[in-house]
Design a protein that fits this description.
Layout: E1 2-5, H1 11-23, H2 29-39, H3 43-48, E2 50-56, E3 59-69, E4 73-75, E5 78-80, E6 83-91, H4 100-114, E7 119-123, H5 129-134, E8 138-144, E9 151-158
Parallel strand pairs: 6-7
Antiparallel strand pairs: 1-2, 2-3, 3-6, 4-5, 7-9, 8-9
């Protein structure tokens, strides 16, 4: 298993992982229409952000990305605070609950430490809240989701200096 910087040409592969991973939770297909833009990774996204691919047996099975918001960002009725965000963390369904997520979090924490990033927020899938809490993230509050009538947990982690 290795974690490395994603390659720009992997944008379609990472998008596929996003959709397959989210499908693990058996959401209705109508949700995926709403999430289409959120889950689509472009080559430009990879070029402008810190995106890391997880390989197992020479196959990319997951990825995560860290973004930096230079100012507060308003999205519908919610405001995302400026700062660092763990925007995506996805694994192919066959690899969920096998320790690969823990490996990505370990890599993420190391990357943050090496780059003097001390606080990171994440708007997690509600099904992943417990995972993030086990990994040291602290629940802050529920935020309105892009899905009407649904919320998503906001969590943060303070990286030790």
């Amino acid at each position: 298993m290795t974690i490395r910087e994603a390659i720009i040409d992997e944008h379609e592969l990472l998008t596929d992982i996003s959709f397959k991973s989210k499908s693990y939770w058996n959401y209705p297909s109508s949700y995926f229409d709403i999430w289409k833009n959120e889950l689509t990774i472009t080559n430009n996204y990879i070029a402008k952000n810190n995106v890391f691919a997880l390989e197992n047996a020479n196959q990319v099975i997951g990825y995560y990305s860290i973004i930096f918001l230079k100012s507060n960002f308003q999205m519908k009725n919610i405001v995302l605070e400026k700062g660092f965000w763990l925007e995506h963390m996805f694994l192919l369904p066959d690899f969920i609950k096998q320790g690969f997520g823990r490996e990505m979090i370990s890599h993420f924490k190391q990357y943050c430490t090496e780059n003097n990033i001390f606080k990171v927020n994440v708007l997690a899938d509600p099904n992943a809240k417990v995972f993030y809490e086990k990994m040291g993230f602290k629940y802050i509050e529920d935020f309105p989701s892009t899905i009407e009538g649904r919320t998503t947990p906001l969590l943060e982690i303070n990286i030790k200096r």
